[in-house]
Amino acid sequence: MIDIETLSRTYGVNAERGADGNFPRFFERVRGKRVLAIADRNTAPLATPLLGRLGEYAQCGTFVFPSYEPVADERAIAAVKEAAQGYDYLLAVGAGTLNDIAKYVGFLRGVPSGIFATAPSMDGFSSGVTPLIEGGFKITRPAQVASDVLIDLSVLAAAPRMMIGAGVGDILAKDCCLTDWKISSLLTGESYNEPAAALMYEALGACKQSLPAIASGGEEGVARLMDALLVSGYAMVVAGNSRPASGAEHHMSHFLEMDFLRRGERIPLHGVKVGLGTAVSLYLYRTLSARAPFEGCEAVYEVAKRLPSEEWEREILRTFGCPTRFSELGVAEATVRDMFTSAYRIRDRFTVLTLYCTYGMMTPALVDELVACFY
Ligand SMILES: [Zn+2]
Fold first, then answer.
1. Which helix (DSSP H) or strand (DSSP E) does residue 37 occupy?
2. Which of 172, 210, 305, 360 has the most crowded CB, counting CB atoms within 10 A?
3. How far away, in angstroms, is 251 Cα from ligand 1 center?
4. What spacing in Å lies between the alpha carbon of 24 and ligand 1's midpoint?
5. Ligand 1 center to 227 CA (angstroms)
6. What is the pLDDT along the chain (375 residues), one digit of tens a residue?
């Protein structure tokens, strides 16, 4: 089992378990400071016990987004940056978006930030980078690692089941991220950071082992999932970028996210889109040796052989009530077709999609095959 508190300390993070809003180590760390809590309409009520107790140690303010699902775009960043004036600690109350906003604004303002996690839905709690939306584009900006990650297992276990499934999807994706990285090192000579990869495989292994416990919905399962999500963040810190945690499946997710933004529609959870992208990557890897051979292909086939099947992945997504086909997300078939042929351009990072698309393997027939299988 991962000793998350000790491991977190080595990365300067106070990963603290507490209940009923009681987090003594955190309270000592912010004693006498001015703390701004940043929440949205969904998460604000969950912070009431914590903010009640925190008030005995620090001067507290709150910023609540007027919406239920804010996005981490220029407007949100500007609003929080403005609200954060005069504060010397930013505490996000939420998961992906709020954590991203607090981490980034804290970095811009030069003050520490932390997170009271309300759902184990993605792995950005402890990473030092932040995905943001600028001009409708998804980009990754440097930010800071959260100083404190406050974990109340009863809050996490009460999160919507699909949010827990999203967290599982974000971790299971790492099999493909690490394989994308490995094949890039084989085919392009990109350097592969063994310690970062080993740490990520540890997170992945811990999550896979705990799948039955996570699926049962109890606190023990969400504890293991949260550990894996935190370790994933540390693997990114070790690598110095998101390479061990983000490959083709993330590029597919980002591609779709921009489509939802353009249409002004509600964006499906990150880990849900990533889970679907992972199934596609697993399929591409599993069927790779049936395609035309290329220089260095034997070594790549060897690496790909270690991956699970796309059906295994989809079965798990199904267990958590997550979509297993892109049509369930509310995205057009034409967009998904574009995604298969263009998502690799989102970032200059070699992945299984780059391999297929730049080595002439992403033929119209294969796009039809993928649509039949995944749309
Ligand atoms: Zn992710």
1. strand 34-39
2. 172
3. 10
4. 30
5. 15
6. 788 999 999 999 999 999 999 999 999 999 999 999 999 999 999 999 999 999 999 999 999 998 888 889 999 999 999 999 999 999 999 998 999 999 999 999 999 999 999 999 999 888 888 888 888 888 888 888 899 999 999 999 999 999 999 999 999 999 999 999 999 999 999 999 999 999 999 999 989 999 999 999 999 999 999 999 999 999 999 999 899 999 999 999 999 999 999 998 999 999 999 999 999 999 999 999 999 999 999 999 999 999 999 999 999 999 999 999 999 999 999 999 999 999 999 989 999 999 999 999 999 999 999 999 999
Q: How far is the CA of 312 from the centre of ligand 1 (A)?
A: 19
Find the 170 Cα to ligand 1 centroid distance in Å.
5
| AA identity, residue 137 | F
CA distance 18 to 9: 17
Adjacency order of strands within the sheet including 14-17: 14-17, 148-151, 113-117, 89-94, 34-39, 59-64
Task: Give residue 97 CA to ligand 1 midpoint distance, Å.
Answer: 12
Distance (angstroms) between ligand 1 centre and the Cα of 189 equals 25
Instruction: Write down all domains in the chain, each with its CATH number in brackets.
Output: 4-157 (3.40.50.1970), 161-374 (1.20.1090.10)
Residue 308 Cα to ligand 1 middle (Å): 19
Interval between CA 274 and ligand 1 midpoint (Å): 7
Cβ pair 77, 102 in contact under 8 A: no
**Cα-to-centroid distance, 76 and ligand 1 (Å):** 21
**What does the alpha-carbon distance between residue 225 and residue 169 come to, in Å, rounded to a whole number?**
11
